Amino acid sequence: MRWHELTIYTREEAVETIAHFIHELGAGGVAIEESGMRNRPRDSKFGEWYELPPNDIPEGEAVIKSYFPEETDIDALVGQLRQSIDRLRDAGIEPGKVRIASAKVDEAEWADAWKTYFKPVHISGRLVVKPTWEPYEPAPGETVIELDPGMAFGTGTHATTALSMRELERIIAGGEEVIDVGTGSGILAVAAAKLGARAVLALDLDPVAVSSASENVRLNGLQHRIAVRQSDLLGIVRDRAQAKRCADKDDLNVNVPVDIVVANILAEIILRFVDDVHAVLKPGGRFVASGITGNKEAGVAAALESAGFTVEQVRRDQDWVAITGRKRG
User: In whole angstroms, how far apart are CA 51 and each of 25, 120, 124, 292?
Assistant: First the structure.
């Protein structure tokens, strides 16, 4: 099978949002490469290290490659993408001097090429993300997450995912019930279970992500503790509650209200469903919200406070922020 390969040259701060646009346009795969500069300041208080393949991408810039079926009207799609990117500055996100190039490639040329760059990653002193195809001997006390992300977002190497995992490590004491919204590869759901959560519900609207997350749950032997379901944000939970079928676990694997909700998605989406998160949490429950750029931090924090949360923790890495709100009452 042949595919259209779109290569987008942009700024790192715009990567997350542009990747979201691409997925909405129906991409069959997205790969992101950021600057390989090794002198970039990084949060390393847990002793973690970073595998950064050398490249010639200037500091602060990034390259996004995305793939669309050969029958796609690629010119029309590029036009739509440019319109979306042009509006980013109005939202306070600087995409830089964006360039978009198009080419046709065979599936074999890209399907596995990115695996060369994904090595075991130490997220903290305890958590290690290991691709399934890489050998790794864990040190005493390390918790290893086996991962094959396929075409879904989430390897642990992106700051937003790492921030979420470190926060889950802080707040999970054992026995909690957790909902992971926008699960992608399922990495946060698996991390929550390995950190001691009793039951996890992983949700994603994208069927590719649901398939990928389900496979990663199986690879880690956690099918009995994690359920993966297709849902638009918390829609499936809300619908079951309205139908009064959430008195017990049903097939969602968790009892609602739950102890923790984690969402590594865009700030704009967090703002859309913060009230729904509040509704599915126990009093004192926590909402870990990540995928927030620095210029959106104040707005998300204000929305959390307005919805009935107290901001308990803020973590930062580069220009990315993760905020944990605790439900009052």
Answer: 30, 8, 14, 23
